[in-house]
Amino acid sequence: MRGGPLLNGRANATGALTEMTSNTAKFRPATRLVHGGVQRSQHGETSEAIFLTSGFVYDNAEQAEATFTGAVQHYQYSRFGNPTVAMLEQRLAEIEGADVCCATATGMAAVNAALLSHLKCGDRMVASRALFGSCHWIVSTLLPRYGIATEFVDGGDLDQWRAALSRPANLVLLETPSNPMLEMVDLRAVSDLAHAAGAIVVVDNVFATPLLQQPLTFGADVVVYSCTKHIDGQGRVLGGAVLGGEKWMNEVLRPFIRNTGPTLSAFNAWLLLKGMETLALRVDAASRAAAAIADFLAIQPGVSRVWYPTRADHPQHDLAVAQMSAGGTLVTFEVAGGKAGAFAVMNGFGLIAISNNLGDSKSLATHPATTTHMRIGEDERARLGITDGVIRLSVGLEDVEDLKEDLAGALSKLRA
Ligand SMILES: *Cc1c(COP(=O)(O)O)cnc(C)c1O
Fold this sequence. Notes:
Layout: H1 16-24, H2 29-35, H3 61-69, H4 83-96, E1 100-104, H5 107-118, E2 124-128, H6 133-145, E3 149-153, H7 158-164, E4 171-175, H8 187-196, E5 200-204, H9 209-212, E6 222-226, E7 240-244, H10 246-260, H11 266-277, H12 279-298, E8 303-307, H13 317-323, E9 330-335, H14 338-348, E10 353-354, E11 364-366, H15 378-384, E12 390-394, H16 400-411
Helix pairs in contact: 2-4, 2-11, 4-11, 5-6, 5-10, 12-16, 14-16
Bound molecules: pyridoxal-5'-phosphate (PLP).
Residues 106-108, 132, 135, 175, 179, 204, 206, 226, 228-229, 238, 240 line the site of pyridoxal-5'-phosphate.
């Protein structure tokens, strides 16, 4: 696995990158997370090189001309392609089982590019109501300015999807499991309905990670990530990615990315490559800890309810175990006493930090009603089940017994 010469794998995903794909295709995911996409320079470095360069030089004018006509593969400009970014894109594509990946500067840049590259004035979208806050803003505030209308449905209710998709549509956007209530959407059923209505399906797969759920295998067309979350996983950098089939990615998404420039920096791509090397270890450990914590919380006094996708009491447990190989790193629970109760518990944490971020090696707790979901208003929160007592916990890599002790200590404040 020496990797081929450093060619422009982005503009033209043939040649060297195809060879590399076949080199790592026989390996299992944990191996591909370490070796996928590696392109070594002439120096034979062990760790992926960081190509912090905005531009590239040509041997002669003829080579520059041939690069621009597409006759030869050569990097042109880092907004179009960069060797370090290309390594990340190839590794992510292999893990997702997608033809092509385009990395972006943030998760929101990925969502925005997927929507705006595909939609035009007069188009119609259908989206699950439980969307990440900024996704909700794009759909409900930005897109209507360009004449793109959206019908929202309760993601777990197939009848609502069926009704909304009984009319022609252009794009379906959904998150599963959703933030913060961990509601599941039936990817296979919704993809079939969407395709019959003429729509492509874009899945925000952040909560599941590429390891626990592969939306493309259930019929989705495009997967988007905030790499800021589990893919970096150590709270260092922002990043995003769009993955999909060769035709859509190269003809629809790539021209939008190349010309509008939500490009990922080579340095951040390198950190994400390093994050991917440990992704399987981290997600597996945090997901096992989260499942144990969900079971622990369910029997604590003061906890009125726990949501965790693979727990038997999750309302969509059967769908969760059919779609996901494990429940993920997030646990949502409701404490007694509403906002005052939730604040007492949050302020009672010693080890667990208060943050609106997630997917970090450090465990982080969020009170959605007063932070991430403050702006959507009380009625919409009630509709989504986000009560004032709800706390979202992103489980990190600490010893699970220390986390349980911290939770028990914080919950004891409810009785103080
Ligand atoms: C964080 C997040 C995003 C946005 O990603 P950024 O990297 O912060 O831009 C989108 N969707 C979900 C589900 C997220 O958790």
